[in-house]
Amino acid sequence: MNIAIIGYGRMGKEIEKVLLNRGHHVSYKIDQDNFNDINKMTSKDVDIAIEFTNPDSAYKNILKCFQLNIPVISGTTGWTNQLPDIKERSFKEKKGFLYASNFSVGVNILFAVNKKLAKIMNSHPEYNISIEEVHHAKKLDSPSGTAITLAEGIIHNIGHLNTWQLTDNPKDDTLAINSIRKGKVPGIHEIKYDSSADVISLSHSAKSRAGFALGAVLAAEFMQGKRNYYEMKDVLHLNTI
User: Fold this and answer.
1) Is residue 139 annotated as part of the catalytic site, yes or no?
2) Catalytic position from the list 139, 192, 226, 233
3) Beta pairing partners, 179
4) Is residue 182 annotated as part of the catalytic site, yes or no?
5) Averaged pLDDT, 63-89
6) pLDDT over 70, % of the chain
7) What is the rounded average pLDDT for all residues in the chain?
8) Which residue in 24, 64, 95, 135 is the catalytic one?
């Protein structure tokens, strides 16, 4: 496939390595210093665009790909208040779009197991539930998009929880998230169920960006020729869990 990488930072460079190793061609590498090159793209020389930029530009970058009729996958977090509009446009205008707060295969398996465990734990209110996430000091959004996805999976399945909050002292209907930024940590997420008798926990620790990059490329391969909105659960066939 011919791929455009929109956002050629650390993640974009890691994605490029995986693309080349899997036999794909990178048609465009677009970053701040050559951003106008996005206007040179066409559906004839780009099969899929992979967008990893920042919360301020993701929305308009995705709309630009829609305008050019180029399917796009995005892993940018911190802009998802605008995601419902993008999803609606994707279905209405038959534009190919896939969004993931985290492309790691392991994290997406964690998402599925997290929902399953929450359904079981809904019958055990004696457990206090919390999430902790740790990322490198340069990560812009807090909490992480991954932590928010985990929180939403829990809230949807735990009857007494209505919302999440960055806090150490949550209300009874609130899921606490502890967000830590330090060093060069690629990403650690832990869900904890704590009672007076024991602790149940689920966790994922990324060793490098390689897992995120591979997942993004798998998503790009999945999206070739597709229209409408998809998620990583579609790529990994996790819909039935």
Assistant:
1) yes
2) 139
3) 133
4) no
5) 95
6) 99
7) 94
8) 135
